[in-house]
Amino acid sequence: MTQDFRIDGGLIDRSRRVRFTWNGVDMFGHPGDTLASALLANGKRLVGRSFKYHRPRGIFSAGPEEPNALTQVGRGAAQEPNTRATVQELYDGLYATSQNHRGPLEFDLMSVTDLMAPFFGAGFYYKTFMWPAKLWEKLYEPAIRASAGLGRLSGLPDPDSYDHGYLHCDILIIGAGPAGLSAALAAGRAGARVILADEDFLFGGRLNAETYEVDGHAGATWATTATAELAAMPNVRIMPRTTAYGAFDHGIYGALERKTDHLPEARGKPRQVLWRIYSKRAILAAGATERGIAFGNNDRPGVMLSGAVRAYANRWGVAPGKKLAILTNNDDGWRTARDLKAKGVQIATIVDTRSDVAHTLDQTDIRTGTAIADVTGRKGVTGIVLESGYRIEADCLAVSGGWSPNVHLTCHQRGRPTWRDDIAAFVPGADLPTGMTIAGAANGAMTLAAALHEGHTKGAEIAADLGHSNAPGAPAKAEDEPFAITPFWHVTKSTKRAWVDLQNDVTTKDIKLSQQEGFHSVEHLKRYTTLGMATDQGKTSNVLGLAIMAEATGKTIAETGTTIFRPPYTPVPIGAFAGRARGKDFRPFRLTPSHDWATEQGATFVEAGMWLRAQWFARDGEKGWRDSVDREVEMTRNGVGICDVTTLGKIDVQGKDAAEFLNRVYANPFLKLPVGKVRYGLMLREDGIVYDDGTTARLSETHFVMTTTTANAVLVFRNLEFARQCLWPDLDVHLISTTDGWAQFAVAGPKSRALSSKVVDDLDLSNDGFPFMACAECTVFGGTPARLFRISFSGELAYEIAVPARFGDAMIRALMQVGEEFDAVPYGTEALSVMRIEKGHVAGNELTGQTTALMMGLDGMVSKKKDAIGTLMSRREEMVRDDGMRLVGLRPVDRSVNLNAGAHFLTKGDPADMAHDQGWMTSVAYSPELKHSIGLGYLKRGTERMGEIIHAYDPVRGKDTEVEVVSSHHIDPEGERQRG
Amino acid sequence: MASIRLQAKPVLDVNIEIGGVRIRERDDLALVSVAGATSLDWLEMPTPTMSTEAGDMRAISIAQDQVMLIFQHRTPDAERVVRKRLNDGYTTDQTDVWVVLEVEGPYVRDGLERICPLDLHPEEFSIGSAARTVMEHMGAMIVRTGTDRFLLLSARSSAKSFLHAVETSFKNVA
Amino acid sequence: MIINHPLLGPRDAAEFVIMGDASRIERPPGSVEDNADAFHDHLYLRDNPAGLHRELWYHEQGDRSWLVVTRDTLTHEVVQVDLARDVARSKGRSR
Known about the structure:
Distance between the termini of chain B: 50 Å
Oligomer: heterotrimer
Shape of chain B: globular
Helix content of chain B: 10-25%
Shape of chain C: globular
Strand content of chain C: 25-35%
Largest sheet of chain C: 4 strands, antiparallel
């Protein structure tokens, strides 16, 4: 296609062509173009369909406020819906399609909804789909879902990558228009660390869209020079294509930098970076956004904001029409007329709603004190109809209803904008986010001279305030252009529907209906009509909507107030928030020291918190995991097994008061634990509930090594630090987490002594020399430092041997080599679990955050002689009831039946309801030793019910199993094996 | 079993360059923490944010009353070496608790700003500065040892994830 | 949010874990057998002020200090930050 609407000038590189595809048609533009400017240059006015009525829509604005020109950019998995054509930079090969239509854009099958518009007013859904209620899920919702929504997702995983990052500065300046550039120059020259961010790819803001002069140069040239000066300052970071989307607590800002969205290829780099910017102070120089006026058919393609028409002409060398009509209530429309006329575009008419207008323009049709009642042309403007009924031919209508300062970020901490009559706009209120200052048009300084001056002054002041006292230089100068406005919101003489919110298809009628039905407040208005929702968040429509509401209720706009804004300022892709946290990078993995070796053995791994642990080690011929696990258990119980238990939390507890400290954080006594011994400890919360357990070894008078469960390692450490710093700050005790420092292996089974004796240097491992619960610092394999503990989780004769983690890989290989003669077997977490259930040791399934020591049969451990965390509260009346839950073992009466954890217990003959609930099954396993399924569980008065037959009722799995109540120690209840 | 001797193994064994930044594991460094010591005879105590150095030994503050000594020492007896020189305090060998990466190169800060929440501007984090923080959900320590050189410490068990995070950062800015 | 650590300077709240009301420091003596009521109040009764609130934050991804942070629950303004150990001592806690 040819660029019929290109005119002279603009900040584009005409020496190069950029090819792109729109709805399957190849076109071209130039570097510097946006998709919108290129489409306009190619004469494309109809670019999409509206959300609700599927009305034909065109490009309305030239910036991020765009409500209409939402496009689908990219193909396949990489496509992105709702891309505003007005901010999408053109690149070679860009592929874009229009949205919101079935069938071709020109003949949208869904546009029938427009004919049914009388039925689809505000609150339509709430009123219509109420009845009959049962049709909602089956009929209404699927139908609505099928026709609703903006754009379509590919349904494929996002092929792009995203990143996060952290930036720090003295002053964050948001917006690189005249105010932002001036502020950055002043602050940068003064020596402050400045970040200057702008969502546009070209710094300068409106200077690029206007014909102003600054310091005697064209505004855009001045902006380029200023940007170059800033780029050369080492203390200034300039960030184009970066949207500050949110103002958070304490000077933290969220910003999205689009790194590759303007490039044909991402080349493996993150597409976007989500920055967290820490600022001491911030200057919001976000400028202002123009708004429209409501009149009949004001949504037709070709009806555009006045400033946007000017921007296309001045910045992009595009005339959005060949015959331009203008409707304005302020001086802005006149600027558009002058600029476009100077570029040779025919001005069909200027309609100024004010009667008293100082402007004139030679040889131009000018009408004052009137307005436009209707627009002709369906898929593009062909003319305008004045209030009088007089029609004037035009193919583009530029509308200016005034400018609204971009107060969005000032509201992110619930600040409320205030109304200013003189500029007919909301300006930032007094309650701003910590450290934020506003400059320029965002602050209501609506002229260029004022913006330049205010930016400079505030930049210099804040820099000085932060102690940067180099000379800020002189402020840039510009002529003060006129800025006068007489509010005019909507044309009451229009009989056709007049649009307020183009994105949500909200009309003046909807707002009046909302008022009539009692939804007066701006918050209700928004929810009832959807005014100001969706991707543009009402940037061009909010003020217009609430002005009409104010009129309907007879209140002033100041009294009516405004809704406030939340982050994000413009949409941020979910992928950017996720950053790298996708797939296996969702969170870090922790690997045990034997991980490489276990991988070589073909181990199956399981996630245990962040850890990857070997779950079992399958051997050839084994048909399922049970075969492997049963074998591992049997070989351990009959010979010797080896398991990596590094994941248990390990905490170095040192100090003169270490024993005293442990005695206060464990429910059972620790003061008299001898050096060279290990004790099992029970840790309570202050409310008396058990939350962790583990063994603690005393290596010297002042040195203990505590172990915690894998899951609670971090929590226990945190609580110990709390006790140490907040409860007993003067105890001499120090804590260091050493979990990762030691590769620790359990060596369990009747042959574990024989194996360990070949590993440990010079230590008598006989039962007398190194009895159950002994510990020692020693060496292994001829000199490697090690720690040896005689503790048992499996119930077998067992040792745990720890070596510095750097030797962990060598250690597991050496253990297996030495173990060959004993037929040593590596076992995983599943066998570990089977053995602890057989033995009746509690674990996570039993420590539910509701369990007391008494429930576990460990109440004897809770000392009554001392004050330890939780001991007093564990003796509360309710916690020591005789009829409370007690830990028991369970076995099926029919031994061939498998038990299920989660089943609830019922006394024989009782109905299956909660009132008769007797407890629940916590853990189950198949016991290779007993040759049947076994369980652990909490049962009311369980200890008194040994031998009773009860029901394990499991409605989820549809099972009801008779089980016998037995000791929780399914094997070796006297503990002879582990002590042998 | 006189024939078997355990060989130490670096956790990552990495020495690579990405975009002019060298990333290598420093498994030659020993880490010994000293808790509750009031002073060291041979080295000034570090402040909470600034390390001290004497000879090849550096001391950084890791908690209110804990310092960590970092020095070249390859055998697993680093704790004994330190303890011999102490008047008071309690030692823990932390060499195996951590993985130590050294990152060095002219663009090192560009990569680190993707994962390190701290301000590494030379005026805020000068040579010798040390801090504990979190990077990509992993606890970490960072020490500036040169204009363009940092030591990064993170838990040994998640060393691979940590290296992946560091590598990705430098790849993303290379 | 940013917490101005008394020893380390401003740090992002993401490095911290919150435990709630700083009254947790004032643990009643558990050696007194009939102190159950005092413990009940200590554990379960909390003020929920709209305004200044003293709360415990733990620098888990940092120097492991427990801090007492005085924060305005209406504005998130952090008015004061103290080392919890110092606060504990000032309340007479010692060994």
